[in-house]
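Replying to the earlier thread about multi-chain prediction with a worked example.

Input:
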Amino acid sequence: ETGVTQTPRHLVMGMTNKKSLKCEQHLGHNAMYWYKQSAKKPLELMFVYNFKEQTENNSVPSRFSPECPNSSHLFLHLHTLQPEDSALYLCASSQDQRDRSGNTIYFGEGSWLTVV
Amino acid sequence: AQKVTQAQTEISVVEKEDVTLDCVYETRDTTYYLFWYKQPPSGELVFLIRRNSFDEQNEISGRYSWNFQKSTSSFNFTITASQVVDSAVYFCAYTSRQLTFGSGTQLTVLP
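Result:
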């Protein structure tokens, strides 16, 4: 059983919809991440939270809005997405995100998003 | 900037064959960490191994082994006696601050 759980596993949404992806980690970690994995593209880091504070926003469009209410939960709010946003969205966590810490990042199973 | 190259896009082998997945990285850092992850069709990235830049010892875990050579900036992964369940995309990754992934190698093990 994975220590990082994501819901929903599959989501189909229209371009005018508002939906959210949820992530929960059961590993006692303090850093949480959102990654995007599109077909034929490398994994892209989107956001990083460390101790509930956002530390990285990798030039992500504002139609993606993250929320981290505590160190165990991370949300990705989706609004007026485009078809090219269809991808696998992976949540991950690590002990913390200090520079050069090299902490292992553990991933969830991902949420497959299709925008129609 | 750091860069991770996995030159093999796809590999197919027959069950019980040994297979080596290549990973080459570029960096100017002296302290860094290297990882391998497995991604089965379900999507989850499964952590396999973490190695820091000061530890060049090779590692073996069951049928898996890793060969880290700083002289050639390589961190190759070998599966011995491959099985159908090994079929997945394998990612090599590097970090000195932010985790950077290679483009992945799709391994197909045929029965």
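Chain B is about 0% helix and 55% strand.

Feel free to reuse this layout for your own posts.
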